[in-house]
């Protein structure tokens, strides 16, 4: 399992470098492979909060395939994200929402560098929340200071249950 | 040796007292299946019952005919799939608008107690019934012994929200004892504190007694009640110790009743969900 994750991480990182050539910030989120009888891919939200809890949305992965927006019915299970602005939004959101993803390391498809460069200098928290049907919920955070100093990168945090390694790094 | 008779005579009054105390403590509640919902539209199902143990229906069903649901824009909604069982009533509510819905049962009126010529205690309206056909004027003898007339208001409610919480449906009617949220009732989280204002007929209800209990009572030995009193502005705040479904009970009494009543009473209760952070 570990080897598989590392292998995917390597391949994904390569692929991302090619696609996001202009971007020099990259966020990767690992969804762990779980040994459970009934597995559903988790809903995941990624957002940035300033010290006043003003939110910049980065990514929301949910069941976008279901008819009549039925998949939106479980967005509230991402409890913190829902409270921190998710409930104000209408779905889907261009460039933010995407389909759920299975086990492995996934690169967030959002121009982080461009978005973060537009924000005022200061302390922020990058939050990553995952909630899984018939499973659990986990919330991770990475404190960051803007403008970001590439020397502090990569910044990582590792989940215990619903999330694996989350990594914010610079690409050359 | 103790005779059986002595034990019986000693125990009986105690048993009766216990029964009486329990009868007074019965709580009427409306409990939603969920309170914070997402989606274009969604459903919430409700249980309504009168019981001691929160939120376990074990005494009598709450009659659903007095329960009304209001959409975020104030429109009255139809309850779906209404059914009454032995211990609880159940109904569904379809949420189609974004915002906060109020599900409530409220009543207010004059109540009189007196003794008739034979010294028997009388009540109007009769216990557990509403005044049918009769008015205070026709039903209550004005020169009766020990006549006490009070105005009492009662409200039992809960709230659910689809999407972003709204406040239109939370506006007080300025009748009876009501809760005005400072903290939105569908935005409550464990370890955080929440603030509310109690109003009696639209004015601050100072010195009202507040009792807060968390559900799942059956699975713990102590009630762990939180007891508070509202300040001069009718205000109270509570820090939620844990996530769970909570029951808030507030009672208020003063002598500022309109004639013929001399005493004004208000009873308020609500079911609030507190989510884990």
UniProtKB/TrEMBL annotation, chain A:
Signal peptide feature range: 1-21
Which Pfam families does this entry report, sorted A to Z? DUF2271 (PF10029)
Q: Which UniProt keywords apply?
A: Signal
This chain's protein is named DUF2271 domain-containing protein
TrEMBL record, chain B:
The alphabetized UniProt keywords are:
Signal
On the tree of life, the source organism's domain of life is Bacteria
InterPro entries linked to this entry = CarboxyPept-like_regulatory (IPR008969), DUF4198 (IPR019613)
- Signal peptide limits: 1-25
Does the entry feature the keyword Iron, yes or no?
no
Q: Transmembrane: is it a keyword of this entry? A: no
**Any idea what this protein is called?**
DUF4198 domain-containing protein
């Amino acid at each position: 399992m570990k080897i598989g994750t590392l292998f995917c991480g390597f391949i994904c990182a390569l692929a991302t470098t090619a696609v996001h050539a202009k971007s020099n910030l990259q966020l990767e989120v690992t969804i762990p492979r779980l040994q459970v009888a009934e597995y559903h891919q988790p809903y995941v939200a990624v957002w940035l909060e300033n010290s006043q809890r003003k939110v910049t949305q980065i990514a929301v992965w949910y069941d976008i395939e279901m008819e009549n927006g039925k998949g939106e019915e479980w967005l509230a299970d991402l409890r913190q994200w829902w409270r921190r602005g998710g409930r104000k939004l209408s779905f889907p959101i261009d460039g933010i929402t995407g389909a759920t993803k299975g086990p492995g390391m996934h690169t967030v498809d959002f121009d982080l560098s461009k978005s973060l460069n537009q924000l005022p200098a200061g302390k922020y928290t990058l939050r990553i929340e995952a909630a899984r049907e018939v499973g659990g919920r986990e919330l991770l955070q990475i404190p960051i200071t803007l403008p970001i100093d590439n020397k502090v990168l990569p910044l990582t945090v590792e989940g215990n249950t619903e999330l694996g390694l989350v990594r914010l790094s610079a690409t050359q | 040796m103790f005779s059986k008779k002595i034990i019986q005579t000693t125990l009986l009054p105690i048993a009766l007292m216990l029964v009486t105390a329990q009868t007074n403590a019965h709580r009427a509640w409306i409990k939603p299946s969920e309170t914070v919902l997402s989606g274009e539209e969604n459903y919430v199902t409700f249980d309504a019952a009168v019981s001691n143990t929160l939120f376990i229906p074990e005494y009598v069903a709450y009659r659903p005919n007095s329960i009304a649901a209001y959409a975020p824009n104030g429109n009255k909604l139809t309850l779906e799939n209404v059914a009454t069982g032995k211990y609880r009533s159940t109904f569904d509510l379809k949420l189609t608008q974004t915002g906060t819905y109020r599900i409530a049962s409220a009543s207010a009126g004059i109540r009189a107690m007196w003794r008739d010529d034979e010294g028997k205690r009388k009540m109007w309206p009769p216990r557990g019934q509403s005044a049918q056909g009769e008015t205070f004027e026709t039903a209550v003898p004005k020169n009766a012994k020990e006549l006490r007339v009070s105005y009492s208001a009662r409200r039992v409610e809960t709230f659910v929200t689809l999407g972003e919480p709204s406040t239109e449906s939370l506006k007080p009617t300025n009748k009876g004892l009501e809760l005005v949220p400072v903290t939105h009732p569908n935005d409550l989280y464990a370890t955080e504190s929440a603030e509310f204002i109690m109003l009696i007929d639209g004015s601050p209800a100072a010195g009202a007694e507040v009792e807060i209990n968390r559900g799942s009572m059956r699975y713990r030995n102590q009630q762990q009640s939180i007891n508070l009193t509202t300040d001069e502005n009718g205000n109270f705040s509570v820090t939620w110790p844990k996530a769970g479904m909570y029951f808030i009970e507030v009672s208020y009494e003063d002598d500022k009743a309109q004639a013929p009543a001399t005493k004004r009473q208000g009873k308020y209760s609500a079911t609030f969900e507190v989510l884990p952070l």
